[in-house]
Amino acid sequence: MIRESQYFMFNDIPSYEIGAVNVNTEGGLLEETFIANRTVNETYARLASEPYVDSVKREPYEIPLNFYIENHLDEENIRRVARWLDVDDYKPLAFSSNLDIIYFALPVNATDLVHNCSNDGYVKLTMKVFPYKYGREITTHWHDVSSGTKNIEIDNIGDLNIPLSLEFKKIGDGDITIENLTAYKEPLKFTAIKHQEIINVNANKRLITSSVTGYECYDHVNEQYVILSRGKNRIKITGECHIRLIYKYKYL
In whole angstroms, what is the distance from residue 141 CA to residue 152 CA? Predict the structure, then answer.
């Protein structure tokens, strides 16, 4: 929970480094956003009384955040806090109650400094966050597929399906295929990969790079990225290589 956390980390800097602790300035029961709002795009067919759902879009939401600064409200530290919060893109935000859950946040609206005309006070601001939360990135060890085939099991314990990133180093010239046997989807296929060529697949950014040809390796891949379904996934690797898999859970 956010409000019960003693400290938080924003943009990889813990709040206690600037003498700040998370505080609750409201009395009674605490309210926190449970799930992001959704916008539903619908189409009504002629003479139909029920709509067809074209798409559902989850919207970013806002988190009020207050943190108390004790004996540190001098000019130098106020400027340090301002620099810490002055970002132009969404940055990772985590709370001490569970540092393995990552929000992506951007300070918005007015940022207020409430103080007692001494060195104590607290900062009030609002964080706009992505509609989803994420786990920390997981990278498996290097798997030896010199035999030509190997099955690797991954348990997706998040709430949603997630893309699978990966990196492999080819053994001998030839092809590589990565397939999720749990999902009925076309596998990811690489053709004519050179011996000791290293291929990196960032499935989140849909970016594929090669140690040999740089970004010009799309002629050798079908770009069918592998998706991990919720629960257990059996990933089949076909082709001689050393490979490691990279992913992070996604939560509502």
Answer: 11
Cβ count within 10 A of residue 105: 24
**CATH for 8-135 (2.40.30.200, 3.30.420.40, 3.30.70.260, 3.10.180.10):** 2.40.30.200
In this predicted model, what pLDDT tens digit does every residue of 62-110 receive, in sequence order?
888 887 776 555 677 777 888 888 899 999 999 988 999 999 999 987 5
Cα 195 to chain center, whole Å? 33
Q: Tell me how crowded residue 136 is: count the other CB atoms within 10 A of its CB.
A: 12
Q: 3-state secondary structure string, 183-232?
A: CCCCCEEEEEECCCCEEEEECCCCEEEECCCECCCHHHECCCCCEECCEE
* Distance of alpha carbon 33 from alpha carbon 127, whole angstroms: 12
Q: In CATH, what number does 138-251 get?
A: 2.60.120.860
**If you average pLDDT over residues 230-236, what whole number do you get?**
97
What pTM does this model have?
0.79
Q: Which residue in 159, 208, 205, 164 sits closest to 182, CA to CA? A: 164
Residues of the chain with CATH 2.40.30.200: 8-135
Supply the DSSP symbol for 97. T
For residue 135, pLDDT over 90 is answered with yes
Nearest to 33 by CA among 66, 65, 11: 65
- Residue intervals of the chain classified under CATH 2.60.120.860 are 138-251
> Which pair of structure tokens corresponds to residue 41?
């795009």
